[in-house]
Each structure stands twice: as structure tokens, then as C-alpha cells.
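For this section, I looked closely at the sequence of one protein beside the C-alpha cells encoding its backbone, which the following lines show:
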Amino acid sequence: MSELCLGCMKENDGEDICPFCNFPKDAVQSSPFLPLGTVLKNKYIVGKVLDNRSDSTRYIGYDKDKKTSVTIREFMPKGMFSRLEGSTVITVNENSTEIFSKLQEQFVSLAKNVARFDDCTALVPIYEVFDDNNTSYAVEDNEDVIPFVEYISRSGGSLEWDIARPLFMPLLSAMSKLNHENIYHFAICPANLVVTPAGKIRLTNFAIEAIRQADGVLPAQLFSGCSALEQYDKTEVLDEATDVYGFTATLFFALTGNLPADAVKRKDDSRLLMSTSVVKRLPPHVISALANGLQVEKHNRIDNFETLRAELSAAPTVQAIQEEIAKPAVMPVIDDEKEDKHKVSNFQWGAIALVVGLAIFGVLGYFWYSTNPFNGMFDQNSGATDASADVNPSDVAGEDFTYPADSPYFRIPNLLGKTFDDANAVANQSNEYQIFKEIDTEFSDTVPEGQICKQIPEQNMTVTRGNDGVTIAVVISKGAQYRALPKVDNVRKDEVSSQLEGMGFIVNSTLDYSDTVPEGSVISYVGNNKFGDKLEYGSTVTVCVSLGKKPESATTGNFVFEDPTT
């Protein structure tokens, strides 16, 4: 078999730099992670780290028996263990033995329980769960997929309900089955969904409950906009209603292109940012279901997936109209003599039927509007979120012009270039507008990272005031998408790693002797990269670290270098 790249698990004929993923052949994976090329159960080859969270680390892997790429998740609770450089075995800290064992049992139990649902196409299959190296592992499918957020972006930023419904209903069914067996996810969000080549969504990244609630024994991994209020309070109980909130928030994102505000902020203001144009194109029963599934307080929220399914599947007003139409027409028996005298023409019957029909629709429409659980939750001020907002027909001159507080018009302030905290502090002092931060960030070549690079409505636009004031959505800059590599020659490895990681790069290293560069400092970039080259944010960058001068007796045959910087 041709040699595998440990960065992507594709055969690359032993190239020094993989032509598929640019991963260097001689890269080193430092402790506490498993060394590159480690073989588990004489079957699974371990590759580079894909992601790392407080309970575990996920690697790309290769199944030698099935000859296919997999992902391997290793139980590694933060702060409770150590692993020597080059070793595979984990050593549990003496004061963490009991809690390590308890969390490991939960990790194994969750993985095995999810593996039982291999018939659910909405879940990423788990092939095997086993213990090794004093810890535990779960092996998952590694199908060629795209992130859900990217799928939404490619679809124009949001989905129509007719498209979203067949996508989400299999996931709803899967979660209903899992929750019925007391198996929960507690992190349903766009970041944990992927889309298969067949156009199906799959849920990934199940985790032990310890990292799904704040202030626990491990650092929490919560998702702003999708994590429910009870996940921010360790005294609260997490259950099916918690997963309903995450599911509904993700559906809300798919339909609107935006996530709800953070649940903690929504405790004081539960409104959801949705443009009037979106409200108009969504069926009323879907809007009601979204409102009920996103109630901030758990006791007000839909508490199970089957109820959510029912609310997403049929509109009460439509059902009522259909029932009314389906009623049989009952005609009274009329005496023949009286019939001639009081006979009503066909035209008159048609007019009466039209009036009655309009009355039925009017009453039902009023009933839905007056009892709509969505009413008051959404800021439907068209001037706040829609480009088609009513505007004052006369242009207003002057950058600093503002309308009087009693005017029906409001001029949108310029928030570009400000941090969200600074802009929000000013907004909090005003009763005329409020701002919400979009969950997604955007690259910007002109606006520094961490500052507002886009606002909706745009700055200086004149809009009509709503009953609850004007809402402004802002997007935070992620900085430039392509960033110039800094000078690294003769700089200590830890300083280089810190700088490159701060710029958004993933850093790997190789080792070599040098007559001119001190031990522990960087000799140069590896591969085609050099000082000044611009690489995309999130790219992997490999540097060569010096071992100092080469000893006279040193050979490079099967000599295993020890990284002097770790």
C-alpha cells in the first residue's frame, strides 16, 4: 500500500509535503496528544488532531481492516491527567482518580448508547468503543461532508420552510428516540451539524453532560444562541426541553440566517431578531412553533420533540378552517306553500355563502392573531431589520443629524469600527435603539478583528420607530482572511507558536540540527512557506525547530529526536 498522509489519510506516495492537504511528512504531534502514527487495537492508525475540547480530543484516523478514513475520539479530561512526550499511555493525577473514573464511565456509556442507533441517518455512526492506554476511545464515521453553516451560506443565507422541513424532520425523529432513552446531546447547534453528499444533515459531537453546563468539574463548551438558559446554571436540571431549545434555535438559524441572542440576555428581553420579510414568508404555525420552542424559561417551553413535531406540522387556524368547510350542510325542511313565498334565488344563496365564508376566515384570523404565542417575542420593526423599511422621503444632510425623540423617524447611528461592548454600552444608555450581535463573524480586510464590520440597517439610514424601539444587528470582524507570515528565524519556538496561533494558524513542528540557530529556536518555515507569504486564516503552518549543533556521533538513521521545547 502507498504511504498514507497522517494529515488527511490519503495515499500520497510518501511525499514530503502532502499534495492534498499540505501536511508535512516529518511533522511532530506533541504531548498530551497521541504521537502521529500511533496504532490502536492493531487496527486504527492515529493522525493529526482535528479538534480538542475539555473532555476529549478528536483525531483523524485510518481503519486498516476496512481501508477507510475514520475519526477517533480519545477521552482526555482537562487538568486530570498527564502524558509523557512520545508516550501513548495516560497517567491520571492522584487527586483526580475518582472523578476521572466517573467521567470515563459516562464517556463510554454515552458512546455505546449512541452507537446503538446506527439506523438513524441523522446521526454520525459510531463503529467501536474500547479502552486502551489507561483511557477510552470512540471510533466514528468520517464521511466527506460540508459544515452546515457553509451549506446555509451556499443556499443564499437561509432556507425556505419547504426545504428546511425535510432536512430537519429526520433529526427531530432521531432526537425524539434518543431522548426517550434518556440520551441527550445538549449542544444542538449549526456548528455541530454537517451535510452529507446526499443532502442529509447529521448531528455530531456528542459529549458528557459535564461540559454542557456552566461551572462544572470541566470547562463548559456552550454555544451562544443555542444553549438554553438552564445550561448557564449548574443547579438547574437539563432534560429534553434543553435539547428542544437547541434544535429550535438551529432551525431558526436555518430559516432566518441568524441565531437568537444569548439565552442569558434574552432573560431580560426575550424578543427574537427576525425581519418582517422573513415573518411574511414563513407559515404562521411554524412561527408559533419557533416561539414556543425558544421560550427562555423552561417551564414555558415545549418540553418534548413530539409536541414540537405536531406544532411544526399543522396550523391550528388551517385545521379549523378545514373542519368548518368539511361540515355537512344541513337544510331545514320547508313547507311547499311557504317555499314559494319565501324562496331564495341562487344568486342570493351565493351572496350569503360568500358573506358567511368571509366571516369565518375573519373570526379565525382574529383568533390566531389575538392568541398568537409569537406575539411580542419578535421585533418585527421593518425599519430595524429590513431594507424595505419605510423611510422619510427627504434625505437628511449632516453626519451628526438626529431626529427629536418624539419624531416618528429615527436615524441609525454609525457603529462600524467600534467594539461590541463599546457600542452596546452606548445603546444601553438610550431608550431609542438596541443592538444584537450576530453569532457568525466575517472576514474583513479593512476592519480590525473584534470590531463591528457590518450593521443592519446601515449607518445613517432613516427608519420608522417601532413600538419597542429600533433593533440593529451587528457583525463582528474576524480580521483579514489572508494573513502575512511573520519572521520566525532565530525566535524561540514558544514565542513563534503563540504568535502564529494568535493570528489564527494551526502550528506543527519538525526538528533538525543547525550550526547557526540555537537549540529550541526556529530555523525556518517548512515547505513552500516563507516570511511575508499570505495564508488563509485557519491554515496549518509547520516550522522547523533547532536541536542545536549536530553531535559528532549523531546519526539520522532511526534516531528519535526529543523536542527540546516541550
